[in-house]
Each structure stands twice: as structure tokens, then as C-alpha cells.
Amino acid sequence: MDFTLSEEQLMIRQAARDFSRNELLPGVIERDEAQKFPKAQIKKMGEMGFMGMMVDPIYGGSGLDTISYAIAMEEFSKVDSSASVVVSVNNSLVCWGVETFGNEAQKEKYLKRLATGEIIGAFCLSEPEAGSDATSQRTTAIDKGNHYVLNGTKNWITNGNTAEVYLVIAQTDKEKGHKGINALIVEKGMEGFEIGPKENKLGIRGSDTHSLIFNDVIVPKENRIGEDGFGFKFAMKTLAGGRIGIAAQALGIASGAYELALKYSKERKAFGTEISNHQAIAFKLADMHTQIEAARHLVYKAAWDKDQGNNYDLSGAMAKLYASQVAMETAVEAVQIHGGNGFVKDYHVERLMRDAKITQIYEGTSEIQKIVISRDILRD
Ligand code: COS
């Protein structure tokens, strides 16, 4: 067993760390406040190869492993999870989904532009009544021979307005249940495709979250991913990898909050000494550090499983469940250590606390992760 990171992984970490400090940190408070999408930052991330990190270089990607991706996600998320969620969705849901299950023509047409960050993508599964209960798709894609007719509404879609390409999950044949679901590539601007109002969110406020409305949108058959009826499995397999990205995001929020709390505790004085000299604070820091290290091992293990070609449904679900819990708890404690200053925007920890919450909700709530984990361990 070897816990050493490779030269390449260390380089990626340094590049992501530098980028976060130099490009994400300036203006992060203002973007959060104004709900401003980090457009210029995402463009630069594309130029640096962060938008298609695991994609084969023949399609314009960086050809890196999942561990490198998790490392970069952690670094970005220490500073700006509104930007890192864009990286996560584009890399592990959209690019991975198209590269792994798309055909050659789809890769040529869409993946090359997605992997370089020229355009970004969105993944559209959730509906007003189908978020966790993902087989209950109300959006329909009716087969009309050489095309589908798409009708319905999707909710809480990350990159909802900024994306150019949308992977939409919809029911074609209700009789067949989840085996009658398809995944279609929908382009912005297709007739009948409307973007709903932007959501006003608790956290990741710089990310662009919308509902989407499809009114008789004609989607050519060549835009279907995989065989007829593959859509549900496509969503499940893609989300399994997405969960590693979100677990890494949660890890980043936790370690970002911890680093700020550690620094603050060595500067702030109370009762005649730095607060880190008080055991009440030192023990909090010890717990945070231990839990973050445990979360990091779970995240890296899930990424390693994916890189090795092992099944990563279980390890990804455990990583997301635990890392998101650590993110939430660590961010709350970081605010506590900062005291009154923790409640003030300038100190960043209140934002990290708000951002942490979504990691327990999107790409499968913590309760869904427990379903995945318990089914796996109870399987005969
Ligand atoms: N990989 C491949 N196939 C999978 C899979 C996976 N990770 N998970 C489930 N499937 C398959 C099952 O094997 C089954 O296929 P068969 O009937 O051919 O055996 C099919 O999908 C249906 O699975 P299941 O019967 O387990 O479906 P359930 O309705 O019980 O739901 C959960 C399963 C809860 C795990 C699923 O609905 C889920 O993950 N929900 C959360 C979705 C989510 O993350 N939403 C957030 C929105 S995206 S931000």
C-alpha cells in the first residue's frame, strides 16, 4: 500500500491551489452576495484543462486520473464551491457520461467542446416530484420514428442557463418503468426549450441553478445516448462517479474551513493568550483534522476504485455520505471558533457553512447514499 501522491498529482494540486488563491479568492464574497456566475474563472479553468480533466486527449481532455480530479476539486472548493460545482458537473456527469456511453459522432460534436471548456454542460434528472425517486420521471420523450418529442419540467439544474448542452433523462415508455427511460442530448436554443427563473439559494450562490421547461421539443434520435431504454442506468452510473466529485467538494469545504479556523485560533487572543492555547479550541481542531483526514481517505479510495476499474458505487456513496457530514460539522465549528467574526461575511467561514449544506443534498441526498450503502452490504 502506498499513500504517496505522484509527481503529476502534486503538480495538479499546486496548480489548482495557485488558481484558487489568485483567481477564485478575489471577488468570491461579492459573487456569492450578487449570485454572480464565475464566468471568467470558468473560462480560464477550461484553458488550463480543468473542465475535461479525465477526458482522453484525443477529445481535447487532459487525460488525468480520478485522484487528480478529486485533488483539484478539493483545492477549488476550499475557496469557491460555486465554481467547483461547475467543474464537477461538467467533468464527472457530462463529459464522463458522453465519453463513456456516447457514440463517436456525439463525442466529435459535443465532447470536444465540453472537455476544453469552450461550452459547459448540464445534467437534468431531478423533477418537481422525482429527485431521490429517480425512476418516477414525468418528463416524456415520445418516440416518433426519427426523433423524440420532449415534454416536461426539470428542477434545480446546475448550469441551467449557462450550459449549451443538456443531458436530459425522460420517460419514453411508461409501461416499461425504468427500462423505458432514455437520456437525450438537448441543445440550448432548440425550439420549445425554455429556461425557467434562477433559484435564489442558501449556498453556492454563484452557481447558476434553474428549472427547465420542455414544450414539444424535437430531439433527433441520433442525440439519444446508448440503446433505447438505457437512460436510467446511464443516470445511475454517471451519478456514481459524480458523487466522487461532490465528496471531493465537501472535503474541500471542510479543509478550507479548518485551515481558516486554525489560522484564526493562532491569532485571536482571549483570556490573555491565543485561543488555540485553550483546550476547548484545540480539541475542536483535533477533531476537525482527524475527521477531514478520514474523509480524504474515503474520497481517494473511491477515486482509486474508479481508476482501477473496480466497482465504485459503494465507496463513492460512503465518501459522499461521510465527507458531506464532515463538511457541515467542520464548517459549523469553524464559525464557532471565529466567534462574532464567524458570523461576518469577510471571514469566509459563514459562506463555507452555507455551501456545505448542499453537499448533503445534491447528486443523491445522505439518505439516498444510505440506501445505496445498506443495499450493498445487505446483498446476499
Ligand atoms: N449502476 C448501474 N445500474 C444501477 C445502479 C448503478 N449504480 N443503481 C441502480 N441501477 C439499476 C438497477 O440494477 C436496476 O436495474 P435492473 O432492474 O435491470 O436490475 C435499476 O437501476 C433500478 O434500480 P432500483 O430498483 O434499485 O431502483 P430504485 O427505484 O429502488 O432506486 C436509487 C434506486 C434510490 C438508488 C436511485 O433512485 C437513486 O440513486 N436515486 C437518487 C438519484 C439522485 O442522485 N438524485 C439527485 C439528482 S441529480 S443532482
Q: Can you tell me about this structure?
A:
It is a single chain. The chain is an alpha+beta fold and 380 residues long. Helices cover 52% and strands 15% of the residues. The protein is built from 11 helices and 9 strands. It has helices at 7-24, 28-34, 39-47, 66-79, 81-101, 104-115, 231-267, 279-308, 313-338, 349-358, 366-378; strands spanning 121-124, 140-143, 147-158, 165-171, 181-187, 193-198, 209-220, 269-270, 273-274. The strands form 3 sheets. It has a 4-stranded antiparallel sheet with strand order 2-3-7-6, with helices on one face. A 3-stranded mixed sheet has the order 1-4-5. The chain has a two-stranded antiparallel ribbon with strand order 8-9. A hairpin with a 2-residue loop joins strand 8 and strand 9 (273-274). The longest helix has 37 residues, at 231-267. The model has no long low-confidence stretch (mean pLDDT 97). The protein binds coenzyme a persulfide. Coenzyme a persulfide binds next to helix 7 and helix 11. Coenzyme a persulfide (COS) binds at residues 125-126, 131-132, 134-135, 178, 232-233, 236-237, 239-240, 313, 362-364, 368, 371-372.
